Amino acid sequence: MAFKFAALAATTALVAGMAASANAQTIRFGHVDPDDWMASKKGAAAHIFKNIVEGETDLTVELFPAGALGNEDELVGQAEEGLTQVVMVSGAMSKVCPAAGVLDIPYTFSSATIAWDVLDGEFGDALAEHCLEQTGLRTLAYGETGFRNFTNNTREIRSPADMEGLKFRVQPIPLYVEMVSGLGGEPTPIAWTELPNALSTGVVDGQENPVGVIYNNGLHELQKYMTLDGHVYAADFILISDDFYQGLSDAEQQVVAKAARVAGNMGRAIQQWGTAEGVNKVQEEGMQVYSPTADEIAAFAEKAQPAVIEYLRGELGDDAVWIDNLQEAVSSASN
Fold it and tell me: pTM of the predicted model, to two decimals?
């Protein structure tokens, strides 16, 4: 009798295992950063996500780094269509959920910790819910691309007056054009792939990017000066197709959500390390780096914010309320 019960138990376990295998699903995770988890914020986040999800569920996670599935706009489109289940993107989010563009209002966040408090709090939750309704993509967590800073090859920048007459490469995004114009510079939209040549040939005098991007792409070799003004804090969005998410069991949803939160924080940590290390390295290699005072940052904000906010209010219409919501959240987190 004991043998029969043991055989029955073994058979039941085998059938359950076969059913679990048959029901197992694969999550395709795409991003545009390198796969190196020790240096790449998105790369590290993706590996952490994979390890947690596969360690605690029967789900399989396949990673597609370095733009293997396309650029950020294409990744978002694939997620909307359910072709890629999870994507980690930054600037592309505001193209499908315009309210996310308020995060790019210059000089909004005075520190990364304030940005984290805002994004991980009520404002971030509300924005995620709004974007879910707009796109069908659920924001599982926020990561970090980092603060963007100005570099140039002409002179040290300590005030908006120092930007006058200088041509700066900007992303082909109206908000960045408005920002640089407000600061007195001459914005020149140029594709990322054309930037090194534009700097080398003098088509533009400077550009703006996070420190890690500047160092890892050798832009510091083409520029003499960097000003750590941190004009825009760029957030990463870890997104999942909500149709796919709703098809998961409650237990799987909990693990996926937890894995994304840990992944987002890992991305932030790698970005912070990369920034600190990058500043040291560009200085060691001859770049002059200036850190503005609080009063100098306030002078930059006074010039840059009005034009950008006016532009966003016109673009967002009724959704312009997100500008006020963000300002209130930042004020609360700063006190």
Answer: 0.90
